[in-house]
Amino acid sequence: RWLFDQAVCTLYAFCGVLFGLSSLASLTVLSTVCCLKVCYPAYGRCWDVRFSHGHAMGLLLAVWAYALAFAATPLARWGSYGPEPYGTACCITWEPSSKEAMLYILALLICCYLLPCLLILASYALILWTVWASQRALRRH
């Protein structure tokens, strides 16, 4: 069973959601940047823009803001945190108690799971296709 009070349960769940979402968002950003660098090497050269330390910091800030926005919404009563069904840990309350809770779960599914996964898959598929097309062009010459 969960050994602590509701405040610790909420903090535990908040940290789990925050770090989980930031991890998936970081992987999404990395795959997208890799895709731009491999598939569109001339991207940014038109305006003499290079990927810099400032760009990386901006992307990191965006990743953490994105994760914080979705992790903090249950604290503002859009969704909720509570004990898991077995009662040994805490996470998002997946059993919707209201229409708002159902919308939060749906928003998590779409914005925090499906969209990042599709972006990662599309990025790596485009990288593979670009490498395959490059090898094919080399064989022709």
UniProtKB/TrEMBL annotation:
<dbReference type="InterPro" id="IPR050125">
    <property type="entry name" value="GPCR_opsins"/>
</dbReference>
<dbReference type="InterPro" id="IPR017452">
    <property type="entry name" value="GPCR_Rhodpsn_7TM"/>
</dbReference>
<feature type="transmembrane region" description="Helical">
    <location>
        <begin position="103"/>
        <end position="132"/>
    </location>
</feature>
<dbReference type="GO" id="GO:0016020">
    <property type="term" value="C:membrane"/>
</dbReference>
<feature type="transmembrane region" description="Helical">
    <location>
        <begin position="12"/>
        <end position="36"/>
    </location>
</feature>
<feature type="transmembrane region" description="Helical">
    <location>
        <begin position="57"/>
        <end position="76"/>
    </location>
</feature>
<keyword id="KW-0812">Transmembrane</keyword>
<keyword id="KW-0472">Membrane</keyword>
<feature type="domain" description="G-protein coupled receptors family 1 profile">
    <location>
        <begin position="1"/>
        <end position="141"/>
    </location>
</feature>
<keyword id="KW-0297">G-protein coupled receptor</keyword>
<dbReference type="GO" id="GO:0004930">
    <property type="term" value="F:G protein-coupled receptor activity"/>
</dbReference>
<dbReference type="Pfam" id="PF00001">
    <property type="entry name" value="7tm_1"/>
</dbReference>
<keyword id="KW-0807">Transducer</keyword>
<keyword id="KW-1133">Transmembrane helix</keyword>
<dbReference type="InterPro" id="IPR000276">
    <property type="entry name" value="GPCR_Rhodpsn"/>
</dbReference>
<protein>
    <submittedName>
        <fullName>OPN5 protein</fullName>
    </submittedName>
</protein>
<keyword id="KW-0675">Receptor</keyword>
